[in-house]
Each structure stands twice: as C-alpha cells, then as structure tokens.
UniProtKB/TrEMBL annotation:
Origin species: Streptomyces boluensis
Recorded GO MF terms: FAD binding
Protein name: FAD-binding protein
Domain FAD-binding: 90-328
Segments of this protein annotated with the region Disordered: 427-462
SUPFAM superfamilies assigned to the protein according to its UniProt record, in alphabetical order: FAD/NAD(P)-binding domain
C-alpha cells in the first residue's frame, strides 16, 4: 500500500489487488497471519515512511503506538550481555500492532482519488514478454478472471510471491535465490499491561548464535490499547509450542527469566497462543537476471524475507519504496531500463539486513542454507567486540544502533576511525549483572512486589 501511495503522485490511476476484503479499521486480515506477532519499525524505516507519507508517525502515535527511544527505552540482554540504557536518545523504534500500522497507511493511501482497490482478487500471471510487462491477469473470489493493462506492475505479494515463476513464463531467466533457515519457531500471546505502564520499556532477552545450542528468546513489546505483545522463539530443538500452559514456563528457560518474572504479575488478554514457522531468510536476486522487462518491479518481502526476530522487514520494505520514489523524482519511468535500475536499487537496500540476519542464523545448530561468504567470521568477530564495547562506551553504542536501525551503513559508522579506536580500547565501564530496570519500573511491573531480580537502571558515564 505504501508503494501505491508513491505511485499515486505520478500515475493517472493506481489499482491495488488484494486477496482480502480489507477491513475498515485496525483489524486482523486473513491473508496476513503473521500480523498477530510483534512488529518493530526501526528508526531508519520510520524515517522512510515519514518521507513518503508526511505526518504518518504522528498518526500512529495518536492511535496508541509507542515511540521508544534507544537505548533508553529498551532493556536488552544481547549475546554479549545487558546493554546499558545510556541517557541520550541515539535512535528510536515505533511499536504497535501490525493491524494498526497497516490501517493507518491504508487509510491515507486509499483516500487518494486515483487509488482504487480490487478486494478479494489475486494475481494469476503477467502479460507481455521478456522485454516488457504490459499488465496482469487477476482472479476474483468467484473465479472470474480479468486482464488489467498497466504501464507498471509492482509485486508486493510478500513471502508467497510467485514472481520468479511469472517472469520465467515470460522468458526471463537467471533469477537466483538464496535461503538460510535456522528452523526458528515463534509463539506470541497478548497480555494486559499493568496500570501506569505507558512508559514501560521494551524487554528483550536474546540468544547466543555461536553457543551451538538451540537459540531461545523472550520479548515484551508495548503496543496500543494498554497491551503487550509477548513473543517467545526457539530454533530447531528448542521450539515453543501453542500450549498456553507451557508459554510462561518457556519464558523462564531462556538465558534470563526477567520476561517470565514480569509476566507473573499480569494476565493474558486471551488464552490463545499464535505460532508461526514462516521464518526462513530468503533472498531473490532479481537484479542479476539475464534480462529484465520494462514495466515490472518487485518490492518488500517479494524480494527478501528475514528472520522476523531482527525486526527489519518493514523498514527494508519502506527503504525499497523510497528508492522507487527517488527514481521517479529524477527520471522518466518510461525510459528503457528504468525498472531494471530501480530493481537494482531495491536490491541494494537488502544487502545490510540480509547480512545481519544470515551471518547469525547460519550459526545455530542444524541451520541449513547458503554458507556466508569468506570473511564473514572476521566480520562477526568484530561485531561481537563492538557490541561488547558498546555496553560500556556510549560512542560505540551510538555507532552500533545507527547500523542496526538501518539508519547508516556499516562502513560509515562501524568502520569509522572513532568507532574502531573505541572498539580497540574496549568498554569503559564494567558489564552489568542484571536487567537495568529502574525501581519505578520494577514497582510498575510487579505491583510493588520485590520478587523481580534486576539491577538499578544503569546509564553510567565513561
């Protein structure tokens, strides 16, 4: 839908094809089951949304979304230890339900006079040839097919995209695909946030990919309506289940029980536990196809999907759409080769998140897929040392967050001389021995009960 909003500035008519009868409010969609899980919008992606739809951030916040300052508003046990909550806001994230995020964008875009939606329709195949796509054949819920002609067809169908098959039918060859699958399963349950928890931090206990044991995590994400989305995950051999009785005990088995301790003082909204196994990292190298037709693009999850625990999917999708917007601002879209160039730009936006996700996921026991390129072990070693240093050195934490939030490239920040020198010097402060929650946060989480193990909020000064 974000892509439609961008195209509406340049096209006479934009038609959105959607499998669902889109709801009129922030409600679940049948074809988007993963919407029930936590979704993060890192600051790099949020800025792209804001550039493309000015004012959308304030609309999210007005509807109940949270803007969480980083690292101040986040309690994280990384693979290297607890991250300090330095007092300076270095980056941020937006947290809310996927339903709210999508509906806010959908409402803005569909209000445009030249945007229409074909509800309960699905793509069947493309029309045209290997040189140019001229439209698409779509099928309605009643089985009736129709051909839509278009100057540009954009595939935003996500993980289930059939774009490689559609293009192959037109004679487009050479689209390579890479996958890395850690076997991750994640389970989510919605909880009531306790009273006065409007500023309660996001809590995240991560796994250690290099430990050679199944990676298990637990996360509390504050969302709208005074609720928390609680997500548990485990790779092969350590998966959570959909059994409600096993949910909180699983949270107690991860590296630190802080999430389980907090949940012991609140109640679930429903007994339901939603489980997903759609977690494979998959990248389609459309930009390397032998030929590329004018009039066709793939964006978002149709290009690449990532382990959802890293929270990069929506941010990368927005940055890919921003690449399209930049191209439309500077070039005539009817110029031969326009879509090939844009597809290359979209591909480049996936490079960083793809490397971040796959270089870690391939380390888990029984992970399968493409092995990382030579030099990845050295990069991982430097990244580990960088995070360990960031725990006790604010300048390095700022560089770490700039990259993780997709706000800057690693070469610009992680390899900057100031950062590299800081990494060589090491942490300026000792590691923390527990989650850095404030006394007030502990009181909020437990209703005043002292049975939550934590370390007084550590901000510190170098």
């Amino acid at each position: 839908m974000l892509t439609a909003g961008v195209l509406a500035d340049y096209a006479g008519q934009v038609t959105v094809i959607d499998r669902d009868a889109l709801p009129a409010g922030p409600r679940p969609r049948k074809s988007l089951p993963q919407a029930r899980h936590a979704h993060l919008l890192w600051s790099g992606g949020a800025r792209s949304f804001e550039r493309l739809l000015p004012g959308v951030t304030e609309e999210w916040l007005a509807a109940g979304a949270r803007r969480i300052p980083l690292p101040t508003g986040m309690v994280t046990m990384s693979a290297q230890g607890w991250l300090r909550r330095w007092p300076k806001e270095m980056q941020f994230m937006i947290t809310c339900s996927r339903d709210l995020l999508d509906w806010t964008v959908r409402r803005r875009v569909t209000a445009r006079d030249n945007v229409s939606v074909l509800h309960q329709h699905e793509m069947r195949h493309l029309t045209g040839d290997a040189r140019r796509v001229t439209g698409a054949v779509v099928r309605g819920a009643d089985g009736t097919e129709q051909t839509l002609t278009a100057d540009l067809v954009v595939d935003a169908t996500g993980r289930s995209s059939q774009a490689p098959q559609w293009l192959d039918a037109l004679g487009v060859r050479g689209i390579e695909e890479a996958t890395v699958d850690s076997g991750l399963v994640y389970a989510t349950r919605v909880y009531h946030a306790p009273p006065d928890a409007s500023e309660f931090p996001l809590i995240n206990v991560q796994s250690v990919p290099s430990a050679r044991v199944p990676g298990q995590t637990a996360t509390i994400v504050p969302i709208e309506n005074d609720q928390w989305l609680v997500t548990l995950s485990g790779t092969r051999g350590g998966e959570p289940t959909r059994d409600p009785a096993a949910f909180e005990p699983f949270a107690r088995t991860v590296r630190h029980p802080v999430v389980a301790d907090v949940l012991a003082h609140t109640t679930p909204v429903t007994e339901r536990v939603t489980v997903s196994r759609s977690t494979v990292n998959r990248r389609r190298y459309f930009e390397n196809a032998h030929t590329w037709p004018d009039g066709f693009l793939a964006v978002g999850d149709s290009v690449a999907t990532y382990n959802p625990l890293y929270g990069h999917g929506m941010s990368v999708a927005a940055q890919g759409v921003e690449a399209l917007s930049d191209a439309l601002d500077s070039r005539n879209p009817h110029t031969p080769g326009f879509t090939r160039d844009v597809q290359g730009a979209i591909g480049r936006t996936t490079n960083l998140p793809w490397t971040l996700a796959t270089s870690q996921d391939i380390l888990y026991p029984e992970a399968v897929g493409h092995r990382p390129p030579k030099g990845t072990a050295l990069i991982n070693s430097y990244a580990d040392r960088l995070v360990r240093t960031a725990i006790g050195r604010a300048q390095v934490m700022e560089a770490f967050l700039a990259v993780i939030t997709l706000s800057e490239k690693p070469a610009a920040r992680w390899l900057h001389p100031d950062t590299a020198i800081g990494v060589l010097r090491g942490p300026g402060l000792p590691p923390l021995d527990g989650p850095p929650l404030t006394e007030q946060e502990i009181k909020t989480a437990t209703g005043g009960s002292p049975d939550l193990t934590a370390t007084p909020k550590a901000t510190g000064r170098e």
